[in-house]
Design a protein that fits this description.
The protein has nine helices and no strands. By secondary structure, it is mainly alpha-helical. The radius of gyration is 20 Å and the shape is elongated.
Length: 158
């Protein structure tokens, strides 16, 4: 019993203090960028295996812990795309781009979503943005944006 009490006391000391009014979750639960990116990689791996609920839980939690991390929001947007939650995905990608306007994955994914819902002017806007971010034509998202842009150009005028 003494060993258990000692373990509980050790655990209590390691837990963050309750949040004060001027503190954020990130202040209470500090995570390094490496830890956050490792958790994102785990969530992506889980999603690839079809474990979308756990992937969503991890990414949603990370978005609370580090709400200004564009990569977390981009990953969450990609997961929402996979879940066919278009409005949530669009919101995440728009937020990602507000944090990092040079996120080529968010621009391309957002364009694809707008294309899918028939908002072709918005799709074109984000395709052009993605293409401009990849002048050397070396990025997979940039290449996908170019392919979608060609498809958009070849659509019959309605």
């Amino acid at each position: 019993m003494a060993k258990l009490t000692q373990m509980l006391n050790t655990l209590r000391r390691s837990l963050p203090r309750p949040l004060q009014l001027n503190k954020t979750v990130k202040d209470a639960m500090p995570m390094s960028d490496e830890q956050i990116y490792a958790c994102c990689a785990l969530a992506c791996h889980l999603a690839e295996q079809g474990n979308l609920v756990d992937a969503s839980d991890i990414l949603t939690g990370l978005s609370v812990v580090d709400p200004e991390n564009a990569y977390v929001h981009s990953c969450l947007g990609a997961l929402y795309m996979r879940l066919e939650e278009r409005n949530l995905a669009i919101g995440e990608f728009l937020f990602t781009l507000s944090l990092n306007p040079r996120d080529i994955a968010a621009s391309t994914n957002l364009a694809e979503l707008y294309f899918e819902v028939g908002e072709l002017k918005e799709a074109e806007k984000y395709l052009k943005q993605a293409i401009l971010l990849d002048p050397g034509q070396q990025n997979a998202f940039g290449n996908r944006a170019r392919a979608l842009n060609e498809l958009l150009k070849n659509l019959p005028v309605q």
